[in-house]
TrEMBL record:
PANTHER family: REGULATION OF ENOLASE PROTEIN 1. This is DUF1349 domain-containing protein.
Amino acid sequence: MTSAPSTDLFIDPMSREGEQLPDAGRLVGSPPEGDFTLAARVAVGFRSTYDAGVLLLHAGERVWAKLCFEYSPQHRPTAVTVVTRGTSDDANAHEVMGDRLWLRITRSGAAFAFHASADGRWWQLLRYFTLGPEAANRVKIGFMAQSPLGEGCTAVFDRIAFQREAPKDLRDGS
């Protein structure tokens, strides 16, 4: 998946209402009802700050969450999470050694969890959250590439897996 130049899905908390319109293209679909897990290994052709390959939860124009393999301002591949409920937050989890990272989104009831893994077997919980009571049932899931400050970014998603269940323990690494 290749993003267009200057594209992102982020509403800066310092912006004024209506000032920013998220504009990153994405490929999303509706998951089945109930718990699920979507995982993929992501490789990104990093060139500019904030270039990223993303697993996305999208529930509306100003309601979404993204799990990113992103190029930090320090020019390091980094696991990043963003949750948007009106405006976005931004949380850098950890730097990544290598050019690939496994990402995983889980829905368990009305809650979501973001995990990252170096090997696709042991998972580190990065975030546990909700998008609100109605959002869990209208959320779409999928993939995105972004390049907010660059000329475009290519992200390759492989080893994509979908299960109609959540891990039994979201915190134990399984």
